[in-house]
Structure formats: structure tokens, C-alpha cells
Design a protein that fits this description.
41% of the residues lie in helices and 8% in strands. It has 201 residues and is mainly alpha-helical.
Length: 201
Amino acid sequence: MRSQDCEITANNVSIPEDIDEINDEPKLDDAAMDDLDTESDITLSELDDDTSTEDDSRSYNPWIGDPLGQRAEEQLMGICYPGDNHLSPGIFDPAQFCIYPVKGNKHIVIESEHDEQGDGSSIYIPNDSLRDPRFNIVQWYWVQKATLTGMSESDAERLAEDNLLGSSQMGYAMEEAIEHKLAEYCLTEGGQDNNSRFSCE
């Protein structure tokens, strides 16, 4: 498996079980040894080029990833939802939510405070909703959490409007991610400003 953040190169060296077997191998002449040394140098050089420092690997990340899930995580963070303990420090943890795509054209929401349940109480967000720039994901999620506590959907919607200030819309998460990656990695030779060069609809 290949990580999107860095490349991991593995090499295997076979060692005979009986080390004395090495003495039975035919000797290589000087020319063959020179070729072997050159090949080894090239391999090590290529390996050095591929294995960059941790900072370098983080700075080079052309992958788009999952902009819909990332935007949803950002929007849901830092709010006390129905069923949450408002005194828990995990409510305001930047890693409170983990949202990723699953089968069925939807995303699943995993909370650090409430692990994924196998009893049907897991919350799923349709991908079509995440692609809607006007989708108010915070209000939607607040209602979902409230109904899991036994509240009726109508009461949950009314309380969500009373308790939540402002609107947390998804916006154009996918389009903005594409524009950002193109501007960051498709540089011009003249070094002109790339910020308004690309537009994705």
C-alpha cells in the first residue's frame, strides 16, 4: 500500500542459512565488482532522493483527498450537540470528528466522544447533501443527534433553530480544493500570482 503523504521503499537481502556457503560462490572479477558498486551507488542515490524528511513530505501533497469529509469535520467541530456532555474537553477537540466516505454514496460520522456503534445508531450523511453548497450541516447534525436521544424531529428542528446561531453551509468544498491544488502545484514559469488563475465549477 502506498501512502499519499510519503513513499516507503522496502528492500530485501537474502542471507544463506550457512554463512560458509558464501565461500563456495564463484569470485567476481574486478570489472564485475566495479559494475556492482556502481549499481549499488545508483540504487542508494535513488533511495536517498525518494526518502525525504518528514517536513518535505508534508510540504509536497498534491492529493485532493476527501474535501467533502474535511469540510464537514471543520463545520461540525466545537459545538455541544444533544447527548453530549458539555463539560467534556473532547467536545472542543480539533480531532472530535472523523468523517469519511463509505459504500452507498454516503459519508459516516465518527465522534471521539461517541465511538461508531454497530446497533444502527451511526449517523450517515448523503454525498448529495455534502455537495450542496447551501447544506447547513451543523443544523442537520444537531437534529440527527437530538432524534437519537428520543426527541421528535419537529421538536429537534425547532430547538436547533433556537440554539444554533448563524448558518454553517458546506459551500463549494470540492471545487475550492481543486482550485487550491492547481494553484499550488501548477506554477507558471514567470512566477506570476496563481491565486486567481484557476476556476472550477
